[in-house]
Amino acid sequence: MCAADPSAERCCGVPASPRPSRTRRPLLGSVRRKAARTLGLAERHVTPARGLAVVALAAVISLGAAQFGDYRAVEVGAPEYASLGDSAQAPQIEPRSPRSAHGDWVLAIAAASLLVLGAAVTRNWRLARLLIFLGAAVVAISLAVDAPEGLREGTAGVAFQGARATLLGSFWVQLFSGVTLIVVGPLLALQLRAQRDSRRTGRRRRPGRAGSGALGASPSGSRVERAPT
């Protein structure tokens, strides 16, 4: 009886089979519409120029932050600890910040890069090219000044046997930040120029459309009809 009449499943103690909910389709439709709106907003606001500007800004911030960390240290007993692998590391002494080698020059370059980036995005796209020279200056200071100075053991090499100078994370952050500015500078200039040209083209088309619509109309608002020949 229960098999013949599905409505009698409750009285026989058999649980009723679940039915698909009708609210799933509207819910999925609303999710799809919201996803499409979000994607449309992202396509309009997240442009290549803005993405490159964010990368350049991150490089500038990293460059400035690297000036307050330790860029070199001297490892004591490095040959003995090398046989232990990663289980133990040689103690480090005499850590120094990058400013101990080059002063505040790179910090000043970071501040100048921030000003140049802001002016290039808001005023003149040509200024983005200056990031190439600022980044090249950072790379030159890192390789010509910081690296030789940081790899000197100094008095620790005399006082401790097996002392070895090593470059720490702040040095590499500073170096790669300069390389990033060199690479991003010309790309950002090209994208900002293309963005400016597209805006000018859009402004020129708008008056043209308005003028073409007004050509066939008289001053009173009625269209002018040609007399039959």
3D structure, described in words:
The chain has a domain at 49-70 and 97-152 and 168-199. The relative contact order is 0.13. The chain has helices spanning 24-45, 48-66, 78-82, 99-102, 105-122, 130-150, 155-159, 169-214; strands at residues 72-75, 92-96, 164-167. The radius of gyration is 34 Å and the shape is elongated. α2 (48-66) runs antiparallel to α5 (105-122). The chain has a three-stranded antiparallel beta sheet with strand order 2-1-3. The longest helix is centred in the last third of the chain and has 46 residues, at 169-214. It has 229 residues and is mainly alpha-helical. Helices cover 61% and strands 6% of the residues.
List the helices and strands and how they pair.
Elements: H1 24-45, H2 48-66, E1 72-75, H3 78-82, E2 92-96, H4 99-102, H5 105-122, H6 130-150, H7 155-159, E3 164-167, H8 169-214
Antiparallel strand pairs: 1-2, 1-3
Helix pairs in contact: 2-5, 2-8, 5-6, 6-8
